[in-house]
Design a protein that fits this description.
- By secondary structure, the protein is α+β, with helices and mostly antiparallel strands.
- 52% of the residues lie in helices and 17% in strands.
- It contains 27 helices and 22 strands.
- Helix 11 packs parallel to helix 23.
- The longest helix has 39 residues, at 279-317.
- The protein is globular, with a radius of gyration of 33 Å.
- The two termini are 39 Å apart.
Amino acid sequence: MIGLLIHDVRFSLRMLAKSPLFSGAAIATLALGIGLNSATFSAVHGLLIRPPGGVSNPDELVQVYRKWPGLDYGASSIPHYRDVRDRGGEAFESTAAWTSAPVALSVDGRNERIMGVLASANLFQTLGVEPEIGRVFIPGEEDRDPGAHPVAVLGHSFWRTRFGADLSILGRELTLNGRSFEVVGVAPPEFKGPMPAVDIPIYVPIMMQREVMPGKDLLENRDQSPMVVVARLRPDRTAVQAEAVMDSLLAELLAEFPDAYRGQLGTTLITLSEAGLHPSFRHGALGLGAVLMGVVTLLLAIACLNVANLFLARAGERRREMGIRLSLGAGRRSILRQLLTESLLFSLLAGALGVGLAHAVTTALAAIELPVDGPFAFGIGVDATVLLFTLAVSVLAGLVFGLAPALQAAGTDLIASMKRGSDGGVAQRRTGRALVVFQVALSLVLLVGSGLFVRALGAATELDPGLAEPSQLVMASLDPGLQGYGPARTQDFYDRLIAKLESRSDVVAAALTNSVPLGFHLLSQEVEIPGHTFAEGERSKLYYAAVSEGYFDTAGIELLAGRTFARTDDAAGPPVLVNRRFADRFWPDGPALGSVVRTAGRDRRVIGIVETGKYRSLGEDPTEYFYLPRRELSPASATLLVRTLAGPAAVFAGVRASVRSLDPEIPLFDVRTVEDHLGLALLPARIGGAVLGLFGLLGLVLAGLGIYGVMAYAVVRRRREIGVRVALGAGRGQVIGLVLGDGLRLVAIGVGIGLVGAAAAARLVRGMLYTVHPVDPIVFGAVSAALVAFAALAVYLPARRAAAADPIRALSAD
């Protein structure tokens, strides 16, 4: 058997070398389809499926979330984490917790803000991560003596890039938020952190929470829940059984701390690979990943149909060869095996080239820098899993495009093949025409999908985000609290900063907020509305922002009724502003102004109503939103908004200079125009539109080439018939019309089938299309017309060649 296989491979290599043009076209076409499939799979696998690198036995790890009305994946407080750790031993072998925490780092006179992780002492042990050098945290740094454990573990990339992989880093003092921390260890290179796509630079223990998060005391606070709990299941427990244990624990905690747990619906366990950046993002991300994989699969199918037609045409040319082999005693099974070996060899060579293409694409993707501050590291590339996927796709593609031509050739009629020479017969012509129909149909589905996403991108850019002229708005974030500022000193700093900026001739207005619309960090608060009873499952935790006076004028948010905040609005008389959707929901029949909203521990009077904007995503339905005065809450961190009529560059420099003049130790971050910030909300649509547009163009080209190849071969096959028609007086236009009519009939059938398939496929992605209808007549009509026009060109070229052929040569052809 091995000897036969070696013989078949050698023969296939000789056939490949014998027809280099044919071989090159087939391999290049397949390599494009296979390479794009591998690159897309690498991105989807690396960002959505693969667990964080460097973690031991990730299938045993789960993240533990608390479920509330309207919130399926709630985080945990530090006391709740300790309860799960200490009382959940029946379900978990070990339990740890972590949360991201920005810190101000000062080293060698250089000040910067970096993203750190506040971690339980056993985080590394629970994840199964050993340090590269030094040690990780020890139990006392989690449970005893708050503020007495100023130690840190560095991420490997941060150690390498910031400190040159200096081995003497152990024992060195770094200044975080004005306090010295001793470096005790460095994480291994494969471990980037507890979540994918983020490369954490520094870890500090939970007992240093107050120093890392100035102004917050979370160690014994059950009402604040910033922690992500991760646990390793016991070998004899499943996730479902562990959830049951957590529900029993919840019942105990509800009895002990009724105020902290009232309303909690249960506990949800998610495996580490399923959690990703956050489970709430997973559905949308998986949807986009599924769309991209579906598109490249369609592209590969079109490529396979293209190559199948090439092989089918070559099978017609090799019918005499097959007849001779049959006459010499070769069995049909051996011919079928030989031809399938050839197609598999082609596909494997294409797969090897596809790996190179996938490597180039993933390298380019990994080098992309998102327009947002953060230690992002997209772990995508060609690894063993991607290579196995590529091998499987290559083998499958070889079988798909090689089976029909091989069956046709193996079924050759011995006598007919010797009589008709290279004519493939009726069965081959029917197979070739059927492949053209399917190729057109698949191309239309691909093109319609691409057109819908491109049109959705256009629709998304036209949506009103609720902020006027975002190109004239500059934003910059800062946090004086990281430098030890108290509430009074923080407010004084911000007042002086706003005054400095508004004194500039290039600044129209300036204001502060702690939550920018369409950002990553939305804030929410429980609200109570006197006279309104929330139904079971109705969301009572609504989004809000704490803003300074002048915010609405600066942001360009329309005031519909009442007034906005003034400097006198503070804790002595706490007001609230609501958006139109908030007012319509809770006071549909009565005036909202003067009504009471109970939130953040106070009864507040509605003093104004503003227009509803976009807060989570551009495609969201109108969402309730309310605003509280910053002077009452005094959060240390803030995002500065500056409206200008000048160029952003000058204002950026002015903002930096103003902050430095007040305190050179305070670093700025996320400095950009609001237009660039809003562009992040459009990023998925832009990626989808650009990628699908490119794939659609490639599909159109492949379809055109496939139709051209089939029609060109059909013209060659019919050259005697065409010669007879010309000899009998058929004109050039008649010959062109004959060939065009034959080809366009196939195109029309394919378009009809494709329209049905495209309508069905479009309804599956309706949630990603913003305001575009899934069966948009403009897209369907334009795409159909473009495909027919392109196909007509592909048919016309061989038709024109046929009309120009010499009838004498055609009649004398073999």
